[in-house]
Amino acid sequence: MRKTLLIAAAALASSVISSQAGVYSQNIVGYANIVTPTAGNNYLLTIPFTIGVSNGANEVFGTSLQGAAAFTQVLLWNPNTSIFTLYQSDPGSATGWDDNNFNSVPAPILPVGAAFFFVPTAPLTNVFAGAVAVNVGSTNSLVLPTAGDNYFVGSPIPYAGSVTNGTSTGGGLNLSFPSAFDFTQVLTWDPIASAFTLFQTDHGSVSGWDDNNFNAVAPPSLNVGEGFVIVPSAANLTWTQGL
Questions:
Q1: Exposed, middle or buried, 111 (CB in 10 Å: 0-12/13-18/19+)?
Q2: How far apart are CA 187 and CA 125, in angstroms?
Q3: Strand ordering across the sheet containing 124-131
Q4: By the 8 A CB rule, do 28 and 132 touch?
Q5: Torsion, Cα of 62, 8, 228, 193 (10° steps)
Q6: Could you report the per-residue pLDDT of 192-203, keeping only the tens digit for each?
Q7: Mean pLDDT across the chain
Q8: Is 87 helix (H, G, I), strand (E, B) or coil?
Q9: Rounded to whole angstroms, how far apart are CA atoms 42 and 129?
Q10: Band of the pLDDT at 3, cuts 50, 70, 90?
Q11: Max Cα distance, the chain (Å)
């Protein structure tokens, strides 16, 4: 992808959270500059920080979606109905957000670990600033319950690189699933071509990954703030990341 995605800064502060259990935590805060350079293009994004009270779009974007960027769209996917819900920023709305019929609606919630399509009406550099959603030394697990459903997801931790980096306890993206979940698909989005590229896990492949024609390929790589799609090949696929 040509969009530039960068963790610009991170600051760590240690604090004791449970002296009885001997558990220590580090609060990691920072920000990422996510560039969406072309008006009208569809960008598949994720928010890698907890921001404000609810991760509402009003908290995540602040006032940046006003002026030339008014009516920027956010599309949220529902894996149960396989339907997108469209929201658009509107500085003239009581909430700052409208539905597809320009009726005022509450700002959409953009949970950490979920992906959404973002269609800017002007070139933007989106500054996402907040706290990492998990404690150092802990894990973050997401269960994808239904085989064959499309789950729009993103790393809840601001890591970048190959999806095979890391373990469930040692950090990284850790999309190396057990063989029972072979041929689980991972789809990455190209906003220039407006197309997905399909990768699928395969323990019988020399790389552990195939393309859509079952030819061995290098595993996909992701950038900070880049969303993607997982289509599990079996029920109750669990994706676990460590930090």
A1: middle
A2: 24
A3: 5-18, 23-36, 124-131
A4: yes
A5: 90
A6: 999 999 999 999
A7: 86
A8: strand
A9: 22
A10: very low
A11: 56
Give the burial class of 15: count Cβ atoms within 10 A of its Cβ; 0-12 exposed, 13-18 middle, 19 or more buried: exposed
The whole model's pTM is what? 0.87
Q: What tokens appear for 148 in the block?
A: 């064959």
Mean pLDDT of 41-51: 95
φ/ψ of residue 15, rounded to 5: -150, 145
Q: Of 194, 135, 160, 185, nearest to 17 (Cα)?
A: 135
Length of the chain: 243
Q: What is the DSSP letter of 3?
A: S
Residue 241 has pLDDT above 90, yes or no: no
Q: Which of 7-11, 36-40, 124-128, 235-239 has the lowest mean pLDDT?
A: 7-11
Q: What's the token pair of residue 214? A: 């079952």
Domain ranges (residues) in the chain: 5-131, 139-242
Tokens 């949970």 belong to residue: 111
Three-state SS at 187: strand
The Cα-based distances of 206 to 40, 209, 214 in angstroms read: 39, 8, 11
What are the pLDDT digits (tens) for 110-168?
Answer: 999 899 999 999 999 999 999 886 665 667 888 999 999 999 999 988 888 999 887 76
CA distance 20 to 169: 23
User: How far apart are the C-alpha atoms of 138 and 90, rounded to whole Å?
Assistant: 39
Q: How many degrees, rounded to 5, is the angle at CA 220 between CA 218 and CA 38?
A: 135
